[in-house]
Structures are given as C-alpha cells and as structure tokens.
Amino acid sequence: MDFLIQYIVNNHHQYVRNAIPTITAHLQKTKAAHGNKYDFIAKIENTFARISMELTSHMMKEERILFPLIKYLADSKTFKEKPKTRGFGSVQNPIKQMEAEHISAGNEMEEIRALTNNYTLPEDSCATFQLTYNELAEFEKDLHKHIHLENNILFPRAIELEENLINGIYD
C-alpha cells in the first residue's frame, strides 16, 4: 500500500497540480478569443474552476489525513499491534468522504464533457481551443485512473487491513 500511495501522489496528484494552472490559462485564452461566439466556454471555465478547488482540497486531505492513517495501519501490521485510530473511529470514515468527493469530481467532469459535446471542437477553433480540449480530455482520463486506484484497490485493502488488525490477524 505504501508503494501505491506514493504512486498516486507522485503521478496523479502531481499531474493535477501541474495541469490545473495550465488548463486554467488556456481556458482563459480560449474564452478571450471565442467567448463572445461560444458562451459555453465560460461555463466550462467555471466548472473547471470548481473541480480545481475541490481536487486541491481533496488531495490535501488525502496526503495529510487519509494516506498517513493508511501508512499507520501498515506499520501496525508490521509491529503486530492493534491500531489506535486517533479519533477517526475507523479508516472507513475518511474513505467514505473521499469516495463522495470522487463522485463529485466525476460529475463535474461529466458536465465539462457535456458542455464540450464530448470534446468536439467547433469548426473555427484555434490551436489553443484544440489544445484546451485535449488537455481537458487528458485530465478526465487521469482522474478516472486516479479514482480507480483509490476506490477499487487502495481503499478496500486499507479497510480489510484495519479489520484484520482489529481482529488480531497480523498475517
């Protein structure tokens, strides 16, 4: 689980941190050039701003709360100790919050996909317009991979680990 956490932080979280300002700048440039003709660009920009704020907060919570808790559980297994969950009650509580935020982020990206008509460019789109749609599509793909790794691999393993440790199973 430590490796998977590092992979998520180094690849997906870092990608998001790098992509947000770039996509934001390209959306602003596209809106300045085409916003009068295509009012949906402003809606895309607003939706992307929301998802950017949500993901920035989400990643901070994962890196400062959930991931250290999962690492603590792994250490508890190494030392064959029953975990003390430090006020969280269970790893399931922050995981449920993260999963709810994953749903919200997915919904925001679906809204962008709908606003862009599945990233279909207008005939008169400039190079920045094209680049922006490509970046948004790539951002969505990365988000889906990120969510898959957490929801389907990391989180179930962390829950199972905690349950085993609580029951005194250290193997």
- Relative helix content: over 70%
Q: Give the C-alpha Rg.
A: 19 Å
Mean pLDDT: 95
Q: Strand pairing plus helix content: what structural class?
A: mainly alpha
Total helix count? 4
Description:
80% of the residues lie in helices and 0% in strands. It is elongated. The mean pLDDT is 95.
What are the key terms here?
single chain; mainly alpha
Topology:
Layout: H1 2-34, H2 40-78, H3 92-115, H4 127-166
Brief description of this entry?
By secondary structure, this protein is mainly alpha-helical. The chain is 80% helix and 0% strand. It is elongated and about 65 Å long.
